[in-house]
Amino acid sequence: MNAFVRAVVRCSLNMRPETDVWGVTDGWKGLINNDYRRLNKRDVAGLGSAGGTVLGTVRVPELAARVDLQEKIARNLHENHFDYLFMCGGNGSIKAANVIETILRREDMMTRIVAAPGSIDNDVCNNIGLSIGFYSALDKSLEMLGWIRDTASSHRRVYLVKSMGRKSAYLAFYAGIATGAEYVIQPGENIDFEKLAVLIGERDRDTRIIVSEGYDALTLTEIRETLENIFGQRNLTHEIRTVDMGYFQRGGKAAVTDILRASWVAFRMVKDAFRNCESGFYTASYIGDSPEVLPLYIAADDAITSHDDIPPEVVEMALALR
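The structure assignment produced for this chain is given below.
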């Protein structure tokens, strides 16, 4: 997120020095409360690789149902003479942006909204691009899974590791591929625990099973107990531990690919804004990639723009690597 903020500020002020750039404090909460601060290039110096967001972000779940708050945000943007609102966020933020955009156009207000995907889950319009923050969270996952493997190997343990990702398995699955985890339990998967127990038994020293956040049939503890019961019936002993690495997957130094894509997407957005573009959704899979800008109402429709399941060819590759 900080790389995105930095790029919007620096591109705007370098391309048109007379531009006023304001940062919204705490996201949607700041838009409701008219909480802004003017930003210059010095304010964003050194932010490219910093984790999190210097502007802050606060969830406002009631915004989805409160028309009065939606209209207040639109009115605040218009009355403060903001030409454009640049935003980077997840599914909820894209949907909220679409609602605010609809009000702005209906009331013939001046502000346009340009949005980009920001999510460690890689579940925002992933049919056409990648979410900013995904590879940063993946880097943290690889580091933690490496630590866990050291302990698992030394003590010959089995680790059940919970990963963030919401309904998408991308973060858990890609982390599993990159670190050589034995299995990744995906959201909605019907697990054959007997086969999983055989897989664990085939390992010589360590086993790591990654459990996606969206898998809700059993808790980590219940999965552990299920496997312990199977091993008990087979007169086998395996020490099984559980770890939730979700607390550590956010924050920390940003991955270089996220920094570059955030900078590229922000540059495109600023450049188009100076050409008086309409509201829209911007994304990219790599620096230099320029997919078609989507109307916000399309970007907000998950059925059209997004998928949760891992593509079959990626699953096939993972099985070949096992």
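Interim note for the steering committee: DSSP finds twelve helices and nine strands in the chain. The longest helix spans residues 134-155.
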